[in-house]
Structures
1.
Amino acid sequence: MNAEIIAVGSELLLGQIVNTNARFLSEQLAELGINVYYHTVVGDNANRLSQAIQLAESRADLIVFTGGLGPTKDDLTKETIATSLQKSLVMDTEALDSITAYFHKVGRQMTPNNEKQALILEGSTSLKNEFGMAPGMFLTQDSHHYMLLPGPPFEMEPMFKKYGRESLLRVLAKNEIICSRVLRFFGIGEAQLETEIMDILDRQTNPTIAPLASDGEVTLRITAKHESRVRAISMIDELEKEILDIAGDYFYGYDDTSLIREAITLMTKHSLTLSCAESLTGGLFQSEIASVPGASNVLSGGVVCYSNEVKETVLSVPKEILDSFGAVSEQCARQLAENVRKLCNSQIGISFTGVAGPSEQEDKPVGTVWIGLSIEGHSTQAFPLKLAGGRNGNRVRSVKYGAFYLLKALKELSFN
Amino acid sequence: MNAEIIAVGSELLLGQIVNTNARFLSEQLAELGINVYYHTVVGDNANRLSQAIQLAESRADLIVFTGGLGPTKDDLTKETIATSLQKSLVMDTEALDSITAYFHKVGRQMTPNNEKQALILEGSTSLKNEFGMAPGMFLTQDSHHYMLLPGPPFEMEPMFKKYGRESLLRVLAKNEIICSRVLRFFGIGEAQLETEIMDILDRQTNPTIAPLASDGEVTLRITAKHESRVRAISMIDELEKEILDIAGDYFYGYDDTSLIREAITLMTKHSLTLSCAESLTGGLFQSEIASVPGASNVLSGGVVCYSNEVKETVLSVPKEILDSFGAVSEQCARQLAENVRKLCNSQIGISFTGVAGPSEQEDKPVGTVWIGLSIEGHSTQAFPLKLAGGRNGNRVRSVKYGAFYLLKALKELSFN
């Protein structure tokens, strides 16, 4: 099966937003073994959209649309497809109830154009929108499959994963099973990892290995095809073992996990609580922890000690340390980690202090970072980083390194 | 003039990277008054690329290509265009010299396939690549314009800005100026805003108004075309005034600003410092503030009071308040805002407490949020929210509302 992804929205053609939906869907379709041959972006214009639909029908079996399902006059994806396929639009009462309930809940008035969002293509399967109002749709007609998804990624991605993917699997219903697993690495570059496992990479056809680098992490996606799911999984197991024999030191987890999630899992398992003192990162580390459901089991809280005054008064860093070594120093990082742990009465304290940029500070260059780590009953550690990104790149990278050092320390603890 | 942007690269169709080049070029072309009607992404396949070229020639005056100019066998953009336009490829000696010099400089051996990068389409203008090896090209033939740009954004963007744009300006050489301005709104839905300004929307042709909603904000992009820049700007001014007469209460700023940036600007102007107590948002608000350069002028810091213990011990919320009203309450939000302000010795304190989800808490439903705001010398305020997003959607939305209420309070202060 081959597919075309059509994103509808003038905001894309004006360059106001980037088409991340096409990337997400391409990756998802590739995993299902569906070849994507074209992405198309077209504006909120019925005539041009209808030409794009005809063209896609001439070159693809599956057409996935994103965007244009909203309440305004600009939103015309389903209307145009309806005309093109000679289908009418019918009310999805379940979606309408959920839209009405939403307005009731937030206490805002529901304008009539919002009802339009609950209309779906006659004969289509409605795909539930758990994070927004407009439902998606899946329809098969004349040997073509049409999937309509909303434009906002936080609505579209969960809808595809939970409902859209299922519809496609039912259509595919083929004998060959495709299994894939992502191995995640931190602390090693993509080129270096590729060099270390070159021998394995060179001889792979099934399973295949696809390396990808982003945000300081490298992932390897292993994909196996076989008639038997059990055999496909054991093919992946065997290859994973070979890879980890070589590069296991940098490996930290599977699939959609993250350094933060792995650390939370271990802390939860060992009933440990965490506090954070954040200067450089300004709350980003704690915010990342808090973004994971269940974070309240481990995160006591902490202090964003952006100014030196807060470091001194709230976190009791001695003035002499700030005067002699500066706020961006090993000594300060240690004090912050220890003191925040005690202040918040938790077992682990972690701290971040550094020069985010754009200008240097205390005669230390942009990218100088110290991470402190204090664990009850153990001596406090401090880790230096030298980062080369921009202001926010350096903050994000520091948070990743913090999670990496925390995870490493937790793994060592677990052996005791 | 209308344009189509064709990105060439199988890595895009596999979802390994996102097509940020299309966004960049769309924005640049819009500024030049060139209408972009389509984006197309096609893989490294000569047959499909050549079909995409024919199609684009049938519907666009200008075709901008990105990617496929490199040294490997996969890179076939210029070869395919050469075949399609019946042009030969000729050596650009200046580009060849620069490639040779590069290999000399880094001390690596130049393999023969690197020479291929210096070949350009016969009759085209070479566009210098100051951050990589492959030059770009601009060619006009049979009333069509073709621009070929490299794929990596750090090569493509400066090449377009410095050389590509010039080539287009020479071709355009026209009198009409295009000006645009974005008005940003918060606290009003897209459908509601559209309903309120329906009369204005319905009669607009020049300037045009394009609404866009994202992350709880709504923007209106006003675009005017006129021979005189002064007149185009005054056309925008007039329309803006009409819109703000109706919906001014929800308007907060122009173009690329954000609620957080506007609040920082006002606090900086009035030499006010800010502290934050974050339960629900877990540090996200402070992290957003810290992401803006110059944040250290206003952000003292604050406390992430995720556990009730931290609320009590670090932020001195009386146990009776937590017991009688709960942590998610108006009373607690007020205490947190006042106490964090005093603890960190700043003029403004803001607090966030709420039920992020996935489960309810203290018998309060997911999405219940209280924001506290304490300004030195003024009585403390508290604002309730009822949010309907997922866990992280609710946290992000709360941060935006916090910035909105802060900004509103700062604007009222400024009048005193």
2.
Amino acid sequence: MKEYVIGIDIGGTFTKTGFVDRNGEIHLENSSPTDPYETVEEYIENLVSILKKAEKKLEKPYQIVGIGIGAPNGNYHKGTIELASNLKWKGIVPFTDLMKEYYELPIILTNDANAAALGEKVYGGAKNINNYVMITLGTGLGSGIVVNGNLVYGHDGFAGELGHVNVEENGRLCGCGNHGCLETYVSAPGIKRTLFELMSNDTMGSDLVNYTYEEMDAEVIYEAAKNGDPLALSSFEHTAKILGRVLADTIVTLSPKAFFFFGGLSKSGDLLLKPTKKWMEHYSMPLFKNKVELLPSELKNRNAAVLGASALIWNEIDTLK
Amino acid sequence: MKEYVIGIDIGGTFTKTGFVDRNGEIHLENSSPTDPYETVEEYIENLVSILKKAEKKLEKPYQIVGIGIGAPNGNYHKGTIELASNLKWKGIVPFTDLMKEYYELPIILTNDANAAALGEKVYGGAKNINNYVMITLGTGLGSGIVVNGNLVYGHDGFAGELGHVNVEENGRLCGCGNHGCLETYVSAPGIKRTLFELMSNDTMGSDLVNYTYEEMDAEVIYEAAKNGDPLALSSFEHTAKILGRVLADTIVTLSPKAFFFFGGLSKSGDLLLKPTKKWMEHYSMPLFKNKVELLPSELKNRNAAVLGASALIWNEIDTLK
């Protein structure tokens, strides 16, 4: 009988779902808005109706073996979503408990970057790597840490928030309420903030002076950098220097074999990863120099979040065997 | 039959050994100089002759079940000591292989801070804690990281070098060759360097102006701080601020339940830990505030390194059961 895991990726704007089989094929993919629902109960009611409707289209016989969920500030231990600043539901939401009113299945929830890290292990480039860190670069910087083949959840279930390492005393205001967090510098909005900071000092003859702050985004900076725009290139260099230093600190802490990069900004490829590697080696303790690889994720971008969420269940099944 | 593990703690100056039983009692403790031996082979020959002589005094019948070794830059995976800057033996020393010429026993080697971390789990305050970090404060800053009840060795066996996190761009020269490493600020020599840096700006009416750099040490600063000396207190405050920030970064990475502190400088107790806690909370991401404890090690200082080394074997035996 064919087995599927329901993978759910809850983002601030869209929720993506799919029925993922053993080989990482996603069936009946769906994307629906996350934010029209005032309460989490209404949201879940709608989500379940979408899933039940889709499930009818699966070829019989089949079995759903579990539900994996990636969500911002997802707490693996408790199945809760806690203090997520880009979701409407405030406080501590008992998400898996609410889902269990509809499904009698194993349900596992964690944050989206942890899910992506596990996706890399089950379906991507980390199949044979037991110690690595996944970095997701989008509107924020997420991370999922794998040690001895297992995700690190930590004491309270929230480990792997490298985006909130402090990189600058009294630095930029972060969504978490602190100042100077890594993700205020290294993320799509972060590189834009860096560009405007650099521009305020020296425009370097860049054409980017013709964009408003509102019009500017990481894509524009990427295209300009590809065409040799000095201000755009300098923005990548500054971003890479800060990221490289944090990677060097992560290396002395965890000694991973590799960092994987996933998400919007990481599509900049060598424009970001080459200078990041240079600065990482610059800051690295001699014992660790030239040992750690920076690799693009092998998950296809389109579906990686849903794949990663489903990997939460497949990995658990593998571990129990 | 009574079982013992031989615990060996290799320091830059002294090597300490003992026969540790199941309850953490150390029998036939010994301390001998590490540095008179030009080659590691001579050193081991002497070490083994000390151990064999001592073993004769053990009450029969008994069994030696293994040898645990804590050493600077000890590589758990390979049993080697690599590029240790405070030992005479240069390059990569195949230490456990050399020991195996004398003993047909399980021999496990790791760095001293990892050994101390495991000692805390087997004999100290971490018996019921599965996620924590041990910080050893002496002439350097060592750390041992425990995740899900297991030490983190990382891909190459050297994980847990928090002393070499970069805390200051172009900062103080470190023994590792880099600049700005945490241990150049937070360690016994580190607080002394901070004191002289602060003194060069403002002596604050401190009596410590009467000490040469050569005469000054962490003990003197501690005693002065206890008596309210403003320069000494300021040195602790500066040290605590830097340490607190790195602990906050470690929390977002690993989400430990506690940090344990061990070693010379940690004897300063609340003088160091109270301001460190304050700064750690200051820098912590809101999600993690007021969740993580700072605790003094419950290992007795006298013998903790040997205890920790023996715990490497006892823990392995427990895990295999």
3.
Amino acid sequence: MDSYPQQCVIALDAMGGDYAPLVTIRGAYLALQESNGKFDILLVGKQEELLKIIEKEKIDFPLQNIVNASETIEMGDAPTTALKSKENSLAVCAELIKQGKAHAFVSAGNTGAVMAISTIRLGRIEGISRPALGTIVPTLKNKCLVLDVGANVDTKPNNLYEFAVMGSVYMQEIFGVKSPKVGLLSIGEEDSKGNEVTIAANKLLRESKLNFYGNVEGRDVLKGEVDVIVCDGFVGNVVLKFAEGFLHFLVKRFKESAEKSFTNKLRIGLAKGILKDILKVFDYQEYGGVPLFGVNGITIIGHGSSSELAIKNMIIRAYETHQHRIVERIKDAIQSFHLSTT
Amino acid sequence: MDSYPQQCVIALDAMGGDYAPLVTIRGAYLALQESNGKFDILLVGKQEELLKIIEKEKIDFPLQNIVNASETIEMGDAPTTALKSKENSLAVCAELIKQGKAHAFVSAGNTGAVMAISTIRLGRIEGISRPALGTIVPTLKNKCLVLDVGANVDTKPNNLYEFAVMGSVYMQEIFGVKSPKVGLLSIGEEDSKGNEVTIAANKLLRESKLNFYGNVEGRDVLKGEVDVIVCDGFVGNVVLKFAEGFLHFLVKRFKESAEKSFTNKLRIGLAKGILKDILKVFDYQEYGGVPLFGVNGITIIGHGSSSELAIKNMIIRAYETHQHRIVERIKDAIQSFHLSTT
């Protein structure tokens, strides 16, 4: 993986996502418009189905870039399902990377299945015990990467340390943050506060060469004091989904309020644009997906309900991750930051 | 504790809270206005300081109800500080209960210290391994009690089960919910999803006589499908504080937007009332505090920044908890729901 061909090739799981394959094809088309020949896209999925859509929608997509995968992993399938056959779109994408025919793999499909196939087929980076899923959150200052948000539960202190290394590399390379500040999500600012795992992780992070800020609390997540927040995937997932539910709650309440009276409707109507602008930053479509950190290759995982814009952004994200050689940077960092204590 | 005198007496830690003792005295006064002789309040704190304020503010508070406590536990003190002396306001409140001179203990002070003194001095209810702190959250339907939100970390499955029993009793007795639905906070709806502890807790809850709804996810917290949500205190605390930070984020963004242009200012000004109404439900002042569930007596803990309204509501809450004999109901429930498996 250390020498790439001139052009970056991205394998897109055309069957993954709630609105696939229509939006994945459209997203791929949009991405190609912006590629300027810098990257190419392989559309992986049921060939016949894809061709039909391309024809019907009159999408100008290079037909030779369609790679057939006769099976599809559904959203409700067990994560291991993808491992059982070589004919599903996820397995085909992973195989394209293994064979050097593609450099990155993008999917808005079954997250568990994408994680499983990536971890097993691409393998883990040496020194990383568990891959992690990150998400970019908006804050009052800059963007912040929170990881893990669901790939792992019952994490150990050294997992959290590894997440911190990977997150730091990503924020530095992709967002140009010099010496990213790392926060450890806990329930008290003092080093001694938290649960068994975070207290031990705090110690590891304090002893490391990372720019460790210290513990951050739930209320600090959107403040933007740090660039990377590490946490157990259970906690990260609950918080991420709580934020989603909170937005839903607010929108519902505004709608109910508008229905109560004409004056309310008018007032809310006038403020709607502002409200939308404020909440827009929480729209994952804008950012697309994030890499599955720690696998020995590039896997970008997106939200199931990704739109064509989200798919396009995921592809751009994959290209950037490839250009910035994030996988190599993580390999270097985990070696150079290697703790004498572990 | 099984036979109460006619009138309920509430010991208020007058020194606890960011704005104490001024707002605690005012809150006590407000509560007395509503008591109609149903309860009485003992104001516990530095007598001289309290008397000065009462005089200066011309508050009509019965002076014989002031109980001197020469020391004060500060917000930053270690939880165990309160246990080291008998002269601090928290220790005096607990002692009043032990001596039968008061039936409930209310404090907006150092949460850790209030928990420590309550647990040690009042003891735990038999069958409850760890006390839990709950919070009432607004939802799209009815109110929901989330516990634990910070009293415990590294909880075991049986702790979560006990929280479910206590939460069910509370919602039934105080909010009149028949057979409260209990949700287990996890990262997937299926029983098999979660971390080691939640998967085991799910099994315990399924086997119990409780009205167990199943796992709920972060996005379900504000939906209102369940009446009680149980979780580890680390997770509960992170989510609770995240919600606080989210509100702060929204308010800050609206202010920034209003400052950008006169039109924006006007539009936001018009919608302000509606926005306030929607966000008001998240104001803990409205509800006051919740009991520290599981201690053998009534302890109501409030937010450090409690206003006089919050203090008043905490006192009312203490009275209701006493009237509904919540401690006895929990004792009964934990016996009758006792699992053969534990």
4.
Amino acid sequence: MASMAKASNVTSLFLGGVCKEEKTKNVAMAKLGFYSPRNLIKPKRKGLLLIASAKNPHNLDMINGKKVNGIFVGEAPYTGKKSTVLIKEHVPYKQAHAASLVGRFVEDRHVYRQTFIIRSYETGPDKTATMETVMNLLQETALNHVRSSGLAGNGFGATREMSLRKLIWVVTRIHVQVERYSCWGDVVEIDTWVDAAGKNAMRRDWIIRDYNTQEIITRATSTWVIMNHETRRLTKIPEQVRQEVIPFYLNRIAIAEEKNDIGKIDKLTDENAERIRSGLAPRWSDMDANQHVNNVKYIGWILEAFTN
Amino acid sequence: MASMAKASNVTSLFLGGVCKEEKTKNVAMAKLGFYSPRNLIKPKRKGLLLIASAKNPHNLDMINGKKVNGIFVGEAPYTGKKSTVLIKEHVPYKQAHAASLVGRFVEDRHVYRQTFIIRSYETGPDKTATMETVMNLLQETALNHVRSSGLAGNGFGATREMSLRKLIWVVTRIHVQVERYSCWGDVVEIDTWVDAAGKNAMRRDWIIRDYNTQEIITRATSTWVIMNHETRRLTKIPEQVRQEVIPFYLNRIAIAEEKNDIGKIDKLTDENAERIRSGLAPRWSDMDANQHVNNVKYIGWILEAFTN
């Protein structure tokens, strides 16, 4: 996968020492599309545009002889029991303390919000949060959203109606626009919600704010489709499943359409790739709780191509 | 480094599915000693004992042609300005919220305490927090302790008297005893403090508790000595530096001496190693904010030797 990486305008990602001066970095964007035939990377606007993909989903099961799977394990919301964390204006310390570590629903339960402090080991050589950190936090917020919505969740996050049909959600595209990367100790507030995306997909969006200033520092959107876990084939969203998720939909867009790079990009091959990073194989520590390599690791591998 | 790994009793580390049943895993221990001539790994008691080391500290600067450095970047406490986070019994939500994400001093400022929630991506294939996660949280707590003590901190954490002499702290040994690994969503409370270790070293200890039950689930201790940043030679602690750190010392031991494996272990070589994992090279993403590979990554590489 990583050998498909190609881009020319990536130095802005690796500027060092911006934390103390609170400089703003250039916008960086990362996309992945695991089932798209348009597998390539091309610099666009000011920043970095990345796409990694596997044309044939059946190939995702094996990398270097290890059983892995490049899909993002997210879970669809579910209309089951509610488990909202209620925060009152004044609460005893210990309760507030524990409650503030988890997320909570806001805006009539249509938005899930979680606050994080950036840890030292989540920053890279330039002393700011890495793209992997940003995407891990997006994933964490999405998973907590789903879990708090009442989905106990097998790893693949199927709703009840999906489980009956052996269906799982897979991500086909993630688009992240970073305005500013956080530093060690910064507190960020992440909002996430879901909406319909055409007839047979779901969209999950995120907004990351600086907790203190409430400035929006990152916007992200992703597209999810349904796959049969056994046949590995994409399928339409069954009507029963649609009825399960519709109550959670919120008609709001994190990245305005005119700022959303959805244009087709040239196909990337070993021949036209400007940068190739070989020798990358999944480590045991790359495996997640579902014993597969998720999309965040792919982004990390792709970024490895740009670092020498 | 990782090729030195050797152990026979490691399967307990990779038991899956213990999170829902709240089973207790076997004790696992990890040690590192970067300057010790006793570079080896030997199973002891029920669990895993690991030692990784580089006999010659000068060699730590380069791995595969990249400038790296295997030392743990920790910082010594400093008697400068105080920046304690004060928590009252009842506080408005937003303040409590932000405050609860950072650590605070307890026990007359001798112990620094921070609470963490385990994130999904910090767990491994067995669905529990990985050893790297445990050690990252120990590191994070130690760094926040130092920073909250008033050390602005160059990356190497020298006190003022140390900076004047180009001295930095380096870790020579970390011993971690895990009683139980946490699951996604578990809240842990970490206490850390420092004490003298003989005449020319400092000891940093940690206790990890389950936040809800207050049960101790992990104990850890580490030994720190002083090195000249330019000559890479170890040195005695200058009296002026000792005077800076003594006010922070707390005479308390996380791992009782009779439970602390300090016995000498046979030297490990390529010949007597039972397990060797080759092909591990630092990735760009292995670099920390000091542009070097810290001890936690070494532990990760060592553990890679046991996973096939």
